[in-house]
Structures are given as structure tokens and as C-alpha cells.
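Give me C-alpha cells for this 98-residue protein.
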Amino acid sequence: MADKRYGQDADSGEVIIAKAKDFWERYSRPVTIICTLIIVLAGGWFIYKSFFKNPKEEGFGKHAIIEDPDGHLISIVKLKSTQSEEDGFDFLGLVGAE
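Here you go.
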């Protein structure tokens, strides 16, 4: 059997370029819309995870709202120290006292 060789003609490169240009003329708008949609969705997911989901998962500490004898509501928060355990210091403070 004879060997079949597939060579490229000088015109085949021009044909490929013409097909690519034709494809882009037909589908440039849908391709652009799909790419933009993917970028917007990825950005939205990143913003959701960074600013809404992750902060809700972090604990705030112990929190209590009490009423003083004058009828004012006082919010007391006990936050755990972010430093080493050797300090043994927890912050206890008043938040939103009237």
C-alpha cells in the first residue's frame, strides 16, 4: 500500500483563518455574553463567601443583655483573647450602654 501523506497547502492556512473569522462573526456576541456571565458569577460567589458567609461562621463570644435598675438595656460581651493562653486575659466590656 502506498503511504498517504497529509500536507498542508498554502491555501489551507488561509481557509482556517477564514473559518475562524466566520465563526467569530457568527458567535462573537454569545461568546462574549457567556464569558462575562462566568466572570460576574465567579466574582459574586467570591464576594458572597468573603463578606457574608465567612463572617457569620466566626464566633463572637459570650453575649448578654441585661436591664439595669433604671430600665436601661446594657449589652455585656465577653471576648476571648486572640493572644496566647499564657496571658489568661479575656475582655469583658459594655457595648451599647445607654
